[in-house]
Automatic annotation (TrEMBL):
Cited Pfam families: DUF4142
Cross-referenced InterPro entries: DUF4142 (IPR025419), Ferritin-like (IPR012347)
Span of domain DUF4142: 24-75
Organism, scientific name: Paradesertivirga mongoliensis
Identification of the protein by name: DUF4142 domain-containing protein
Length: 81
């Protein structure tokens, strides 16, 4: 989780630097890809949080707070692009 947080922090700092500037196509595509991948992970974790397996459910519920990072990244993306 810590690595994910550090990765998002760096990505968000980069996105903030490029707000209202022309962003290279690679950067834009990368940000879109990360948002899509994290959206899929959130959907899977949300489904897993309803599992009858207590270990699966506990992991999903512990990991779902990362959704706030996704929401922040999405808002930066929407402002910048």
């Amino acid at each position: 989780m810590h690595q994910l947080h550090c990765c998002w922090q760096g990505l968000l700092q980069l996105a903030h630097q490029h707000e209202r500037e022309q962003v290279p196509a690679f950067d834009l595509q990368y940000m879109r890809m990360m948002l899509q991948d994290h959206q899929q992970a959130i959907e899977l974790l949300t489904a897993a949080s309803q599992s009858t397996d207590p270990e699966v459910r506990a992991y999903a519920l512990k990991t779902l707070p990362a959704k706030s990072h996704f929401n922040h990244a999405r808002s930066v993306h929407n402002r910048a692009y």
